[in-house]
Design goal:
Distance between the termini: 58 Å
Shape: globular
Mean pLDDT: 92
Number of helices: 38
Largest sheet: 6 strands, mixed
Strand order of the largest sheet: 1-4-3-2-5-6
Number of strands: 12
Low-confidence stretches: 2-6
Oligomer: single chain
Strand content: 5-15%
């Protein structure tokens, strides 16, 4: 405010101490008694008192200021309302109340009447811009600030400010891989700039489009947009922006136009005025020289680039620098240096993730770099020390499931703390519930794409509200929600499991053949599988799930790929130490490794599994599992379909319940979601005995339901919203294709995110899940369940009981199988199973990999 008054009143008026409750009466009296401009000065002094006394840093002032605003709104005196709207906006922002602060800011712009108040609005807009650029509220909330600024600029008729706000928001979305929202902001900006005849800003929209196209892998589109920006600048006599020329050269390199790219970069060397631009220039020149085979020049340029960057350089710039340097080191034959550079790149990616809250933005950010890092990782030595590559793997295998688990546990840890912030923590829990309803860890893809402050439906508002609450909590000194999934935490977790003797197996992509990494103790070894074979295996699974490939043809493809996997890992399997408790297979984006089938095909390992001395487990998320304990007299819940043709399946849970001496047995019908939820509040063991449909048959994982088009209580939405806090410790999904993963995203994100029923059922953090990856017979499901129940009765840990059951079923004599079936009560299902077994050979009836190899065990790390 620019008004001034020289009043040296020695004592403040008593009414300044009035509470929010008393203020309305005080204001009525002031309005009645004030003459001329006295009321303005009374209120102006009160405004300055609130600021100068430091009250503006507390939440108490918000209540009083809101009372003043409401009073003058009712009195239709916008001048005074605007005065205190500015104060409310600043106080709310300082207190972390972003939504309230922005609402006051926009209301101020809407009703201001005086020119000096317009200047106040513009000044406040500048402060809001500063908040956004400095990331005061976290990167997820920065677009909210720019959207608010844009609305204010639109109201003020400031087209230039409006366009710049859109462009800033676009750049933020691009950092998170949210390309739909980023491109939408660019299109808005271009439309406004063209209508206002702001040619320079139109050019900037093409410059931003060039960046977006390049990040989507469309180098040709990037060059086209970049040249459009150059043409506009040249036509208007403007100097060519350095970043535009730099981006154009980068895109040309990707198209193989190395000489043209090098010419642009070299022409900029003597004209560049920014250290950051100069750093980018020499980094890209180093990349160009590497591609041209000029390694000495490449090394010199990368050293110059490194010297130009500083502590203020963005993580993206440093990440790209490390990737380029790793490529140079690899082509120079210095693989230890390359490993160091890739570890540094992983650190930068980890740093970038720290400020990102939205799960789909975290996935998008990982997706931007995972291919580049994995393709270079494959060129490191085929064996070496775990410490050289494990931190890189820890970052590459980050996932939205692990992210969501970390956030849930973080929130639970806060609610249990008596820090005088009980109201804030209760608000946090409500916000998390709203995000669960939105969809977490998996939401509708269309909602993720639409998520921006300009979406008329405000689809992503639950994330905005959660982000605002978390920003306030972290601002009070509490740790970040994602510390538990940071590179350091994930690396430490992997190291702990290796120290316990576990063998960890995982694939990475971006190269052909596909590397399969095996970690044991302090060492790693890398094996390979042909990319073509993996592609054929992926197609076979998908086609079989859709019914377009016969069982016979699928079984042949399975046998072939399992044999290839087993042969690739033969050395590992042959040499696996007797003390090794098992194999942990980290689940990649496509779940390519049929780990149980591969292990069951190895005689030695299968024998150890049959003795309960070895596990084979798929790990969908790098997150610590709660310690397992034996299931003694558990409560068993069975989900069945009384109207289907699976007569043996409907009674298998009864046999299991008798075997484990379950203390309580309850049954829910397949379409009774509410009934199942009610039973699961104190359940230990869930057995799902129904037909199943692959989640990959859906257009979106959020729509996934185990029953396909029919109602089924096991569906993605229900699991994400209801199962998170249930105490169950074992789930057996005895339904066809229950272990399938969603792979239908048209964008083919390559992050290692597994949208599957088993992965989501692990969200309660204390369970193990068994699921069939393909179609499976009900007799096989029955036998496996009863064998698991026998292991549980012997007080084996659930995961051990599952692995042992698979191995024993593989070699189960037909006579023993008949005995197990005869445990079932007399029924058509039992008689049909016995009749089927009558025609089976005495031994080897279950030895085919198709028969038993698809039943996988899933658990956290």
């Amino acid at each position: 405010m620019d008004a001034a008054k020289s009043d040296d009143s020695p004592l403040p008026p008593a009414w300044w101490a009035s509470s929010a409750v008393d203020l309305p009466n005080v204001l009525v009296r002031l309005c009645r008694e004030s003459v001329g401009s006295d009321l303005f000065w009374e209120l102006f002094d009160y405004y300055n008192h609130l600021v100068s006394e430091g009250v503006a840093s507390s939440l108490d002032i918000i209540d009083r200021v809101e009372v003043v605003i409401a009073f003058f709104n009712g009195e239709n005196q916008p001048m005074y309302e605007v005065m205190f709207l500015e104060l409310l906006s600043r106080v709310a922002m300082s207190a972390g109340k972003l939504s309230k602060g922005l609402a006051a800011f926009e209301r101020m712009a809407e009703i201001h009447t005086e020119e000096y108040q317009r200047r106040d609005v513009i000044e406040l807009a500048g402060d809001m811009w500063s908040y956004a650029e400095r990331g005061i509220f976290g990167s997820d909330l920065q677009p909210l600030l720019f959207a608010s600024i844009a609305r204010v600029f639109k109201r003020l008729g400031d087209d230039e400010g409006l366009v710049r706000a859109y462009l800033q928001a676009s750049a933020l979305y691009a950092q998170h891989g949210a390309h739909e929202a980023a491109m939408g902001a660019v299109q808005h900006a271009r439309s406004i700039a063209k209508e206002a005849n702001l040619t320079l800003l139109v050019a900037q929209t093409y410059e931003q489009e060039a960046v977006l196209a390049f990040e989507r892998g469309d180098a040709a589109g990037s060059v086209a947009a970049g040249k459009a920006a150059l043409t506009l600048n040249e036509a208007n006599g403007n100097s060519l922006p350095e970043r535009l020329r730099l981006n154009l050269a980068t895109a040309q390199m990707e198209l193989g136009q190395l000489e043209e790219a090098a010419d642009i970069l070299k022409s900029m060397i003597n004209s560049s005025t920014s250290g950051d631009i100069t750093g980018h220039l020499f980094a890209n020149l180093a990349s160009c020289c590497r591609r041209q085979g000029c390694l000495p020049e490449a090394r010199a340029h990368i050293a110059r680039a490194r010297s130009e960057f500083n502590a203020d350089t963005s993580y993206e710039s440093l990440l790209e620098l490390e990737i380029i340097d790793a490529s140079i080191a690899l082509e120079s034959g210095d693989r230890p240096a390359a490993a160091g550079r890739l570890r540094a790149a992983a650190v930068m990616l980890d740093n970038g993730l720290r400020g990102v809250l939205r799960l789909h933005h975290r996935r998008g950010l990982r997706d931007q770099y995972i291919r580049q890092i994995e393709s270079r990782l494959a060129q490191l030595p085929a064996d070496g020390l775990t410490v050289d590559v494990l931190p890189i793997i820890a970052v590459l295998y980050g996932s939205v499931v692990a992210d969501w688990l970390a956030l849930l546990d973080w929130a639970d840890s806060l609610v249990a703390r008596p820090d005088g912030m009980e109201t804030e923590f209760a608000d946090l829990r409500d916000r998390i519930l709203s995000v669960q309803a939105f969809g977490a860890p998996f939401a509708l893809r269309v909602d993720e794409y639409r998520d921006s402050p300009w979406d008329p439906m405000l689809t992503g508002k639950p994330w905005d509200d959660l982000g605002e609450t978390i920003s306030r909590i972290v601002g009070q000194g509490f740790p970040s929600p994602f510390e538990a999934v940071s590179m350091a935490a994930a690396t430490s977790l992997l190291e702990t499991r290796l120290a316990e003797g576990w063998c960890i197996i995982l694939p990475t992509f971006g190269s052909d053949p596909v590397p399969i990494w095996v970690f044991q103790g302090n060492c790693y070894a890398r094996y390979t599988l042909p990319l073509r074979s993996i592609g054929q295996w992926h197609l076979a699974r998908r086609s079989f799930a859709q019914g377009s490939v016969s069982k016979v043809d699928f079984a042949k493809q399975l046998d072939c790929f399992a044999a290839q996997s087993r042969d690739a890992l033969k050395t590992v399997f042959d040499m696996l130490p007797a003390a090794c408790p098992g194999i942990l297979s980290l689940q990649d984006h496509d779940n390519i490794l049929p780990i149980t089938a591969a292990v069951l095909g190895h005689d030695g390992l299968r024998a150890r599994m049959a003795e309960g001395k070895l596990e084979a487990r798929i790990v969908p998320a790098l997150y610590p599992a709660c310690p397992q304990s034996a299931l003694i007299q558990p409560k068993l819940v069975a989900l069945i379909n009384s109207g289907d043709n699976l007569e043996l399946a409907r009674i298998e849970a009864e046999v299991a319940a008798v075997t484990v001496e379950a203390r309580v047995v309850s049954t829910a019908e397949v379409d009774d979601e509410a009934g199942l939820v009610a039973q699961m509040t104190d359940a230990d063991l869930l057995v799902v005995s129904t037909h199943g449909v692959s989640i990959s048959s859906f257009s979106d994982p959020f729509l996934g339901s185990l029953g396909g088009a029919g109602a089924h209580a096991i569906n993605v939405k229900a699991i994400q919203s209801d199962f998170v806090d249930f105490p169950y410790r074992l789930v057996m999904l005895n339904a066809c294709h229950a272990g399938s993963t969603y792979t239908g995203d048209e964008r083919r994100l390559r992050t290692h995110d597994s949208a599957s029923y088993p992965a989501l059922l692990l969200l309660n953090r204390c369970s193990v899940v068994s699921a069939a990856s393909w179609r499976i017979g009900d007799t096989i499901s029955y036998l496996h369940l009863v064998l698991v129940a026998q292991g549980l009765k012997e007080e084996l840990l659930p995961s051990v009981a599952l692995s042992r059951a698979s191995a024993r079923l593989r070699d189960l004599p037909t006579s023993d199988a008949k005995s197990l079936v005869q445990l079932a009560p007399s029924s058509p299902g039992r008689e049909a199973a016995l009749l089927l077994l009558e025609g089976a050979p005495a031994g080897g009836a279950f030895s085919a990999l198709y028969t038993i190899g698809g039943i996988e065990t899933y658990g956290l790390l």
